[in-house]
Amino acid sequence: MERYSKQRELILTALRNRKDHPTAEMLYKDISKIMPTIGIATVYRNLAALYENGQILKIETKQGESDRFDGNIKPHLHFQCLECNKIEDIFLNDKQNEELSKKLKDFANIIDAEFATSKIVLKGRCKDCRDKK
Amino acid sequence: MERYSKQRELILTALRNRKDHPTAEMLYKDISKIMPTIGIATVYRNLAALYENGQILKIETKQGESDRFDGNIKPHLHFQCLECNKIEDIFLNDKQNEELSKKLKDFANIIDAEFATSKIVLKGRCKDCRDKK
DNA sequence: GTAATAATGATAACGGTTATCATTTAAGGA
DNA sequence: TCCTTAAATGATAACCGTTATCATTATTAC
Questions:
Q1: Which residue of B has its CA nearest to A60?
Q2: What is the dihedral angle through the alpha carbons of B118, B107, A82, A15, rounded to the nearest 10 degrees?
Q3: Is-above-0.90 flag for pTM?
Q4: CA-to-CA distance for B115 and A121, rounded, in angstroms?
Q5: CB within 10 Å: which end of chain B, N or C, has fewer?
Q6: Are A25 and A61 in contact (CB under 8 A)?
Q7: Which residue from A minimizes the CA distance to B100?
Q8: Which residues of A fall within a CB distance of 8 Å from B115?
Q9: CA distances, B11 to each of A62, A78, B26, B120 (Å)
Q10: Which residues, 6+ apart, have CB-to-CB distance to B21 below 8 Å?
Q11: Domains in chain A and their CATH numbers?
């Protein structure tokens, strides 16, 4: 049976306190300031467990690049800037969400599959990078 | 300047001859039958180059799981079965494609970003796994 | 044919993540 | 409260897909 641990609580809190999409390593650094004895494996283990429980989101990135985590489980899309690599959230309103889900379900129907979830990452240039030019 | 190599040609051909989404390792095995001296690094190098050139697609999978490649560059979505992990293609017709692009562009606008491309993976249960039950 | 240099093949190195294992600690009785 | 048990931890080795290195080979322009 699952057991309470101070470490897991700290990890979840640390993630929720961030507005960005930190890596396990970034969270490890944050938490080390409060609990210097924590091990990196504990951070990975708990992030995996929290993800399994549906308490956090995970954004799987490409090989050799650290996965990103997200404490906000409200469904949303991600946008990754091709120039600065930053990941931003895109929240849809209920109508948009519903329409999108309907479309995706139709797409899955094309191959006779049952649609459950989707992983959508838009790519392009973020506002900051565009304004820089 | 880029130079012709027998190896690159073999790799591209091997990929196009497959209807699935092989890993670099799988292609290496295929090609080794024809050219037993080829090195695994050459396969990775050329797949990366072909991807950069837009001649093939790459499906980035999670850490520790090999990336998949796709010789069909016609734009399409991917569907990954949550039970058997198989990745299938979903081809949209022109109208569907256009509507989807328009929507995604609107979504990027929400955060003032310029939309370029998207990575969409639908997940659920494939036809085969559903029929098994 | 020759020179210049891109591509190759063998293999070491890399980096994020996971496995291992001895130790610590939470939780449910007695 | 003390005991028992087994889940969770922390340190670190191992893992594995991929990339870097470097001497050698092969393509291209002349």
A1: B62
A2: -100
A3: no
A4: 11
A5: N
A6: no
A7: A103
A8: 122-124
A9: 22, 33, 11, 26
A10: B59, B68, B69, B70, B78, B87
A11: 1-72 (1.10.10.10), 74-133 (3.30.1490.190)
Nucleotides of chain C in contact with protein CB (under 7 A) are: 6-12, 15-20, 25-27
Number of C-alpha atoms within 13 angstroms, CB side, residue B2? Answer: 7
Alpha carbon distance A105, B79 (integer Å): 11
Say which nucleotide is closest to residue B5, CA to C1' distance: C7
pLDDT at A133 over 70: no
Nearest CA in chain A to B64: A63
Whether the CB of B25 is less than 7 Å away from nucleic strand D comes out as: yes
**Set of chain B residues whose Cβ sits within 8 Å of the Cβ of A101:** none
B126 to chain A, closest Cα gap in Å: 4
CA dist., res. B125 & res. A113, Å (int): 6
CA dist list (Å): B55 to A86, A122, B46, B66: 26, 21, 11, 19
